[in-house]
Queue: 2 jobs
Job 1
Amino acid sequence: MRYDPELYRKIVGDEVIAEIYRKSRKIYSKYILNVNSTYQGGGVAEMLSSLVPLMNNTGLDVDWRILHGNPDFFTVTKKFHNALQGAEINLTDLKKNLYVKTNEDFSIYTHIKHDAVIIHDPQPLPLIIFYKKRQPWIWRCHIDLTAPNPDVWNYLKTFILRYDVVIISDKEYRHNDLPVEQRVIMPAIDPLSPKNMELPENTIQKYLKKFDIPMDKPIITQISRFDPWKDPEGVIDIFKKVKEEVDTRLVLCGNMATDDPEGYKIYRKVEQKAKSLIEKGDVILITSENNILVNVLQRVSSVIIQKSIREGFGLTVTEALWKGTPVVASNIGGIKLQIKDGINGFLLDPHDIDGFAKRVIQILKDKELAARIGSKGKESVRKNFLITRLLIQYLDLLREVLS
Ligand code: UDP
């Protein structure tokens, strides 16, 4: 049965599996509710789609609900998201009212009788004010909180202060002005999900054909929502430099998350910028939502780029490392937790286009280096970033808050 911890045994070993069962023992049949704002697109949905069934298979009763919002709501919450990552915002009452009212409406038909509640990211954060608090509430923030916009941070604290625990992805996101326990739990990937599982060669070939991706030259890829923080335009600049020295092709693959209204705008900008390269077939843009395709791209690419300007964690980096593909990425946020420069990947200043291009060229020219970096990458994920570790940390936390 999929999501049976037993299936993970051959990857993580007996000890880890026994630990999962041991740690769930004290919280059997506890009702846990997760709320976020999209079933698909982005790292939160990616993790919940494995973590929630896995938790149910270890003896807990875990629900996952999606906050309903209209496009205006998601425009406002994306602005809050951007502001938490440091962008400017005009924090009007109109925005605040829409934000809170959407949460209030959802609360009317969402009954929470669970033993604990886990709220993901800012969209459903205000829900807490619409319930009589009968159980621990945990706010799981997946965003890079290095330098949040002070107005938004101060406003969101209205809600955050009511929570029992805040989970962040990196200790650097901890805020001394937030007198709530802030616990670091790094995200993780599911090695058995369609996105990360081993693929037979004929499946790989089938997908390359289906999505029109020729393999006559090496491929460089960035897989990310079309989002200013992922800097797809910067990736095109890097590609142009690389292309002066090595003949390659660039793939930019970015699905559209239902809670991210910026996607189409950024996509069109990228399309404009890369127009002639797209016409020549040197740049391929993909917007399909397809886990196997992502898996294929992460396996067939010679280099995976992650040129983010801010990155809460960056599951795309973890996924690529797991496939043994060399990663060249920005030295920021959660990416720093995953890559040791020159050991299991390369890190660069996010604005250093020349530096990025140099590293990509180096990997393209040196197969031995690529293989060495790639195998270290895979090992680092096996040790630190598999979903079994994440599951254990959630079980620990739930046991604590429920005892
Ligand atoms: N993703 C995808 N298709 C795409 C682009 C992204 O399935 O076209 C997935 C990606 O594989 C990863 C998640 O969306 O699992 C993105 O998570 P990450 O932490 O990298 O960034 P976020 O989007 O949450 O900022």
Job 2
Amino acid sequence: MKLKRLQVNTASPAQPRGSVLVIYTGGTFGMAFDGSGTLVPFDFSRILGYLPPLKHLALELNVVSFETPIDSSNMGPDHWRIIAEVIRDEYDRNDGFVVLHGTDTMAYTASALSFMLEGLSKPVVFTGAQLPVSEPRSDARENLITAIEIASAKKDGKAIVPEVCIYFDYELLRGNRSRKVESMQFDAFDSGNYPLLAKAGVKIDYNHSAIRQAPEGPLRLHTRVDPRIAILKLFPGITREAVRSVLRTPDVRGVVLETYGSGNAPTLPWLVAELADAIARGVVVLNISQCPGGMVILGRYETSKELLRIGVIGGSDLTTEAAVTKMMILMGEYDRDRAVELIQTSLAGEMSV
Ligand code: ASP
């Protein structure tokens, strides 16, 4: 996967008030209809043609693009690593970063980046669009311009939002608390278990008490990823064979168990036996809820007591996106015991403890 640096002639002002790096990865944002009516990526260096106001932001804008922009359904750990490395390499030169990304897996990439970029003290704002920037009714213009504003926003010389977040449809959300919830309307994301970090109207209203404090110390990257993770989503009537096929996936190291309500599962003896067997084989089983709001409290009901007893660990209010990426990165970086300890610790504001 190659990157290219693009010349976007924003005619940098003599005294820019800051510098933002835009990392363009693809997605609907940068597409235009070709002659046959199919959406295909357009040459991003032509962005100013679609977004003349970029010239008036009084910022130095740098752009790095995936050489071949991709639909975010094709994003994976290698792309997360590349984005993290670009941010590290450009860290000192820029006040903030905007990642232009397809909406489909944006919450996964934003979650992954929040775990990869330990010690982050500058904004990394993900955004994209539901309609291509070339369309008259597109949401791309507002999303990108406000994302750039947020990425460059400072108070007393310090970044106002020193964390990985998603800006979409006038709302700023914590990245590792977000989920894509809508594919037709413009309000594509929500974060049911965490308040908005900001709301954009005539001015941008920051919710300072919800925004993370910048940590002390330098930026440290964690880019070793172990993808041997699986998801087991329970449903009434699930068969032993279906459960087995997931828990016995060859080489699987971690399973995200999606349970009901506050972490409940059927008390079927075979289910408990299959889970206990997986745990005995060293598989880490992390319990998160299928509910978009609330959290797992293991042992609250009889239906989760057994899970606690056999060694299933509780994921509190982690989203699926945060649970999967957190497990992949911690299992890639640490041995099993350390990973289990850290999975239950909030590392980047991703869960309530
Ligand atoms: N399929 C597109 C993507 O995720 C959708 C979008 O960008 O909104 O790349």
